[in-house]
Amino acid sequence: MRSSTPGNDTSTTEITHISSYGIWLLADNEEFFMSYDDFPWFKDQPLRAILNVEQPSQGHFYWPEIDVDLSREIINNPDRFPLKAKTT
Question: Is the model's pLDDT at 86 over the cut of 70?
Fold first, then answer.
């Protein structure tokens, strides 16, 4: 007997938790924590803006309502990328 052809990849990119310390992003079965200290753009944003995350390419995340682009490398190593945009 032959197995059926595998379906589409069902891996999603989503925000799994928001707290007073930061947000958790789940992508490709890996979870990332982004503290507000390292990623201040998210702190005072409405819930819908934070939840609206896209992964236009592997390891690249974009929040269109906030206009924030982050790579997996930046999220995993924020200390290597000390320049931060000023929040208003």
Answer: no
Per-residue pLDDT of 38-62, as tens digits, reads 999 999 999 999 999 999 999 999 9
Residue 58 and residue 11: Cα distance in Å, rounded? 12
Long-range contacts, stretch 41-49, CB < 8 angstroms, 24+ apart = 41/66, 41/68, 41/85, 41/87, 42/66, 42/68, 43/87, 44/87, 47/18
DSSP string across the chain: --PPPP------EEEEEE-SSEEEEEETTEEEEEETTT-GGGTT--HHHHH--EEEETTEEEETTTTEEEEHHHHH-GGG----PPP-
Nearest to 59 by CA among 40, 23, 32, 24: 32
